[in-house]
Predict the 3D structure of the following.
Amino acid sequence: MPIVRTPTEYRAALREIEYLWGSEPDTEEGRQLAEYLSAVEQFEQLPNSTSDTQGVA
């Protein structure tokens, strides 16, 4: 499972999400998408993470 700890890793995870978007849930790509989404969500819940990532999309 990917772990997002820095703004650089956050941006890389967003790129992976964009690439994997639309993948079927019961495939390897769908599993990866779900893992990246979870990792990004966890990072966004961390204190001070939003100040480093605002405007990133």
